[in-house]
Design brief:
By secondary structure, the chain is α+β, with helices and mostly antiparallel strands. Among the domains are: about 100 residues, PDZ domain (Pdz3 Domain, Roll), CATH 2.30.42.10; about 180 residues, Alpha-Beta Complex (2-enoyl-CoA Hydratase, Chain A, domain 1). It contains 11 helices and 22 strands. The strands form 5 sheets. Strands 1, 3, 4, 16, 17, 20 and 21 form a 7-stranded antiparallel sheet that branches. A 6-stranded mixed sheet has the order 13-14-15-18-19-22, sandwiched between helices. A 4-stranded antiparallel sheet has the order 9-8-10-11, covered by helices on one side. A hairpin with a 2-residue loop joins β16 and β17. It is globular and about 75 Å long. The N and C termini lie far apart (about 50 Å).
């Protein structure tokens, strides 16, 4: 199988952080690649004019008219005619966009190359997750110690413009390309925060982005904190090590902080949930459409007894695999959720090679909690809602963590 055929549980990522940085489990299967060749004498496979009864004659008519009659508006606009291959990529891109799903998209060669480069590790940009929410480009979460976080961007901030480009006219991938760039260069974002009445322009200098995974801390009051930043390829092993550290600490009170965690590998979320759930307990359901469903079960590590006291912190930046883990532990009564309603990213994407240089990312399923609640419909609602006020931010008070500590001490 090609290493470029993957399944995603992540929010589509933006501003120099690729969606594939948080891949939701590998999808093993075969995909037949094909190439459209021989563009000098016509388009190969053109004889397939009416698949499933669809009349492709208007497409070929438009193709011929454009070839014969198109002239650039300005002579300087194009010194080289658009290639036939580029027209094919544009047609496929339009086909994907016709589904109206912000997570279904086509990557032509340069975009596919960028995508592959970004999944390899460090890259240059501003360091935040973005997605389309309510038809507006929205910040899911800035990553720790990145230019986006240092500039004060927060989950839920709406990005109205990137430099001079209005985002309402852009796909997520187009927005990502505009926010990407070399270290030391500047990008201007016009941001509308939830609490603001007017948008403001934020200037951010791009930098090299290194993705953190987790931090641990045993507080002076004995409460152990695991801060998980993403569900990366090695996060399951690091989480296991963190749990070993927790066990050695002698504490039975645990805070798992998933705030601002945009998700990642599905397998990592399943593995992490398995430390708390017995074998065959449902971690999540996968709605495949047409009444079909696949159920994912705990691996049954289940190392904790009833003495465990656990709170999970969530907010609007907790998405995808974060919601899978938090939803499973909430519905099985393992942990209480404290904070704010999560992002609500509950769809699965698969990445398939169309040619060795191009790929199609397509939504193939929806995530549901163990009890069958749709994550995409409404996100996860916390058991205890704690709003973060401007006064809290100004005074550097973590009201959500304080509430989690309060609840754990009361148990």
């Amino acid at each position: 199988m090609s290493s470029f055929s993957k399944r995603f549980a992540a929010v589509v990522i933006g501003a120099a952080l690729a969606a594939s940085s948080f891949i939701a489990g590998a999808y093993y299967g075969t995909r037949q690649s094909f190439a459209l060749e021989d563009f000098t004498g016509g388009i190969s496979n053109k004889e397939l004019a009416k698949p499933n009864g669809v009349d492709f004659a208007p497409f070929w008519q438009a193709w011929n008219i454009l070839n014969d009659r198109y002239v650039p508006t300005k002579k300087s606009a194009s010194t080289t005619p658009t290639t036939d291959q580029a027209k094919v990529w544009g047609a496929i891109k339009g086909l994907a966009e016709a589904y109206g799903d912000p997570y279904t998209t086509f990557f032509p060669p340069q975009e596919a190359s960028d995508f592959k480069a970004e999944i390899s590790g460090a890259f240059e940009g501003v360091g935040m997750e973005v997605a389309i929410k309510d038809n507006i480009l929205t910040v899911v979460a800035p990553l720790k110690n990145t230019p986006a976080q240092k500039a004060g961007l927060k989950p839920g901030d709406r990005i109205l413009k990137i430099n001079d480009s209005i985002t309402a006219k852009l796909s997520v991938e187009e927005a990502i390309r505009l926010m990407r760039g070399k270290k030391g260069t500047e990008v201007r974002l016009t941001i509308l925060s939830a609490e603001a009445k007017q948008p403001k322009e934020v200037k951010i200098v791009r930098d090299t982005i290194s993705i953190p995974t987790l931090d641990t801390e045993k507080r002076a009051d004995g409460i152990f904190v695991i801060k998980l930043y993403n569900f990366s390829a090695n996060s399951a092993n690091l989480f296991r090590n963190a749990l070993e550290e927790f066990a050695r600490s002698g504490s039975n009170r645990l805070v798992l902080d998933l705030r601002g965690n945009p998700g990642g590998y599905l397998d990592a979320a399943l593995d992490m949930a398995s430390w708390f759930l017995p074998k065959e307990q449902i971690v999540l359901r996968e709605d495949l459409g047409d009444g079909k469903e696949e159920i994912h079960y705990s691996k049954g590590y289940d190392i904790f007894n009833n003495n465990l006291k656990m709170v999970i912190l969530v907010d609007g930046g907790s998405a995808s695999a974060s919601e899978i883990l938090a939803g499973a532990l909430q519905e099985h009564g393992i942990a209480s959720l404290v904070g704010a309603t999560t992002f609500g990213k509950g769809s699965v994407q698969e990445l398939v090679n169309l040619t060795p240089e191009t790929a199609l990312k397509i939504t193939i399923a929806r995530w549901l909690t163990p009890k069958g609640n749709s994550i995409s419909e409404q996100g996860l609602k916390p058991d205890v809602e704690v709003k973060v006020t401007e006064e809290d931010v100004k005074n550097q008070v973590d009201a959500q963590m304080n509430k989690a500590v309060e609840l754990l001490k009361a148990r």
